[in-house]
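Quick one: structure tokens for this chain, please?
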Amino acid sequence: MSIVVSDTSPIRALAHLDLLGILPELFGEVLVPSAVARELLSDNLWISSIDATQVAGLRIVDTTAFPASLSGIEKLDPGEAAAIALALELQATVLMDESFGREVAGRLGLTVTGTLVVLLLAKQFQKITEVRPLVDRLRAEMNFFVAPPLYQQILKLAGETAQ
């Protein structure tokens, strides 16, 4: 099983859906940079704070400094930068939803996945029965952006249709 490092938004999204427990079921232990753990402690418009030290399957890890010479680093928030730095250090998969962070991670050669793929995997491994209602909840309740073509693609991959 590969090493997985998570940014803030997938943890918040899965917590909102009461599905945080699927992360260790799908990936084993998930590493969380300390900067992400600090971000999770802040209240958010859609979800209250999350203490990562209290979530089974998450392990908080201090990260090395992110190389300042890398293009785009100044536009990343501290959690995204720390997740990418740790993933680079460990040659891990990074779990991230924000498009610019995903772009930076991809340019650096990292494997990037996100909440929607986690939901697809959860369905594939029969941890959930449907993807569509969960994605619809994220969109409606958390203002989680999913471009219409991606929404259709996710539903198709899940063997579901849009309503």
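The helical segments are 8-16, 22-27, 34-41, 78-90, 99-107, 115-124, 132-142, 148-158.
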